[in-house]
Amino acid sequence: MIVGAMNNPHKNLVEQIYFLGELNFEFFELTIEYPAATPKKIIENKKRIADALESYNLGLLAHLPWYFNLAHPYERIQQATNKEIEAAAHIATTLGAKILTIHPDLTLPQSCQARKKRFERTLSTLKSIEKITKNFGLKLCLETVDEEALEIKEYKEILEQTDIKITLDAGHAHTYFSAGVVGLIEEFKKDIAHVHLHDGKKQIDHLPLGVGTLDMKKFVEKLKEVYNQTITLEVHCSDPHYLAYSKDILEIYWYGKEQFEENKKYIYLIEEEEEEEEGRNTEK
Ligand SMILES: [Zn+2]
Question: What is 2-257's CATH topology?
Fold first, then answer.
């Protein structure tokens, strides 16, 4: 299991990469998003971003804006959005990402177009975007958001008709799906290619782990049966201690307290070795 975190698109991107590197995250999920992380701004700062990622040996995953249309009834508007997605996919692959997460369409109420029509348009757009992302060598993952956006059977229809995989958002699954997070893991177990994790209660999500009502023990036990890859902590709060605390909580549940402490020693051991090396270098 590898733990990462995501940038806040309203804050300086390079500073956040250094900040998350200091917290010992193992990868960075880059949301390519207005205002501070648009494709244009990322291109302008590409070298600094790549240097920051490399200096902490951070892997990279990519994420699209959550509010992009996938089912807009005006064809030219949808085509323009697809162009923006293509620009983001290009940037993602240039920086070395292999996975790009996309959200289902959340923007238009059903009074604008019937659910059936919206689903047909979503499927058609996803097929076009999948062609683009395949050309860039990116795996496209559709995030679990809520049943209003897409129901489980609609996700399954998309998975059947494409090579798209699932980004299981555990916080959303817990808060907004009647099947709950354990139910969603069971439904999508063969297709989960990435996980987002945050706590939630009632209609509030993106909370630090332990603050909401997500049963971490049950969640980790179930997820470990089928998945052992990247997990992004999507804890939205300004105090970084909550993010560091959430990382500890996840690792304690995943590895057990004893192994968690052992793993920490490993991090410090590397630092001690580096210090010894530096000492030897100055002696020469
Ligand atoms: Zn998410």
Answer: TIM Barrel (3.20.20)
Q: How far is the CA of 238 from the centre of ligand 1 (A)?
A: 17
Per-domain residue ranges of the chain:
2-257
Which pTM does this prediction carry? 0.93
**pLDDT tens digit sequence for 173-196:** 999 999 999 999 999 999 999 999
Omega before residue 35 within 30° of 0, cis: yes
Residue 143 alpha carbon to ligand 1 centre in Å? 7
3-class SS string, 139-191: EEEEECCCCCCCCHHHHHHHHHHCCCEEEEEHHHHHHHCCCHHHHHHHHHCCC
Tell how far the Cα of 65 is from the centroid of ligand 1, in angstroms.
11
Distance from the alpha carbon of residue 203 to the mean position of ligand 1, in angstroms: 15
pLDDT tens digits for 79-99?
999 999 999 999 999 999 999
Å from CA of 41 to ligand 1 middle: 23
